[in-house]
Amino acid sequence: MRILIIEDDVKVGGFLEQGLREEGFDVARGSDGEEAIAMVLSEAYDIILLDYMLPGRSGPQVVKAIRDQGRATPVLMLTARDAPEDIQLCLTCGANGYLTKPFRFADLLAHIERLTHVSSEG
Amino acid sequence: MARLATSFSLKRTLAVRFSLTMLTGLLGLALWGYLGVRNTLLSELDTSLHSAARREVDGLAAHGSVASHERSALTRFIRDINRFVAIRDSAGTILASNTDLAAGLPLETAAFRQARQRTPVFVTQQWQGHGLRSVYLTIPGALPTDAAVVQVGASLIPLEANLATVLQRMVGTVILITLATLVGAGWLAASAVRPVGKITDEARAISGEVSGQRITTFGDVTEFRGLTEVINDMVERLERASLWHRRIIRDLGHDLRTPVTAMRAGVEFALWGDRSAQDYRRILASTMEEIDRLSLICDALVFLGRLQAGQVSLDRVHLDARVLAREAVAGSEEAAPEHPIHLLLPKEPVGILVDARLTRLVLGQLLDNARRYTPPDSHIELRVSAQGDTAVLEVEDDGAGLSDEVIPHLFEPFYRSDTARGREGGPGLGLTATAAIVSLHGGTVEAQRGAAGGLRITVRLPRLETENAQLGSELPPRPGTPRSREQPGPFAATFAG
Hints:
By secondary structure, chain A is of the alpha/beta class. Chain A has helices at 10-22, 33-42, 59-68, 84-93, 105-121; strands at residues 2-6, 26-30, 47-51, 75-79, 97-100. The radius of gyration of chain A is 13 Å and the shape is globular. The model of chain A has no long low-confidence stretch (mean pLDDT 90). In chain B, 51% of the residues lie in helices and 16% in strands. In chain B, α1 (10-63) packs antiparallel against α5 (157-205). The longest helix of chain B is centred in the first third of the chain and has 54 residues, at 10-63. Chain B is rod-shaped and about 155 Å long. Mean pLDDT of chain B is 81; it is low at 418-425, 480-488 and 492-497. Chain B is of the alpha+beta class. Classes of the chains: A alpha/beta, B alpha+beta. Chains A and B meet through α1 of A and α6 and α7 of B.
């Protein structure tokens, strides 16, 4: 399974990448909004783990751009912002789920499993 | 809700005070009226007595004897209308009287003697258990008898009875008017304080949950407009403060989550499987960096709290702003040589009276901010100039700048636009602290778009008109060692102090 991580925090992104690789995933990583859009449009991924606050474009803006381009790849937002309006913005822009930081790695795996399972069934 | 230990009803107090004032006035008026009536009645009585005495004397002169006088019509008249007549000889002995009672009229010796000097004398005496008003009038010329003085008296009982009636009616009137005043004053006071009650009700209905609630009642009444405006202004300030605090708490939560997330990810990665010693060291180093980041946030919050509570005292010294600028640039280039700073200084010194340590923090923060949001080898300028009585320090870069929507919020705590934040960013408190420090020095700080499209931040401080010799060319020593690029920001080492 191929996973794209878009996270501007080098440490968080690095640990996620290593951890997911050890779980057997094929992982690619980007660190800003523009880069994320370019990567999604150029390659196919099974799921995108997308930080909310990014340089260039915010997470919701990235999701909207991806959806506008017709990409239906599941997007899991990773966000430190859990106000109802922030979560609503994520979902209305096209994200499939969100995980509030800080999160347990096991929870991340569960979300990935759920979203990719639903996606493959759909 | 805190209440005052004692309270009183303004309405009741106003009514009682107004009524007491009215009562005092009415009592004074009644006393004045009573005395006036009494004096008038007494004066009329005196005139009547004097007239009666004069007629008596004239009668005596006409009849020539006391005996014939006793049977005159005048005598009967006087008897019927409360007139007691006694004719006394030169020793004061009564020779004749109009009634048997009058034969016992008391003699006021002093008045009698004075009357002998041909002066009518009026006097009040006690007789038969009540007041007696008398006039003593001498009889001029020689009579066949020994009559010398006519005394005409009148009982004061009718007069006192009349006065008592007048007094009674006056007191009754005063009481009635006072009671009516009390009712009227109560109504007036109630109508005067009713708006206060309604304003209180509206103020009480304002809750912290719904924004924009204001007092609208009686805003058109001149006397209450000021009160409602003051309350509405206060509510607005409280609302802003409340919103500010809520936002601070929310943003602080977000900013705390970032380092905690990195720490959790690292520790969980370490525990997820067996790692090499090198991996553990890397994870521990990463965790330490995040701990530093958390410490920075804590220190910055404490420092800001002290600033806002006025607990930061300034250790002001006379300095040349050019010296501070040179030092800041040197420190910046030492920490980040890939970001050279262009320093533009005037030829003449620019005197300022500032806390060197805090001003150093301000310049360090502005340069750090410019470096953080511009790529290496960008053009960053630090300019110092004197404009009248103001010292101006400007930091300008040619980076991507910020949108017009973001710039006004730049000095708010934790503020970052959603898209402009980078991981190099501090806790979002540096510029807030900068603004607070500048304000503490009586200066201002302003952000705007620079000439090249980047960000320009201008600090204005009061300038000293000081001779060169008085300006310190040597700065107080800097605390600690030069900052490296890995340290989180210029405030990190200094906030805690």
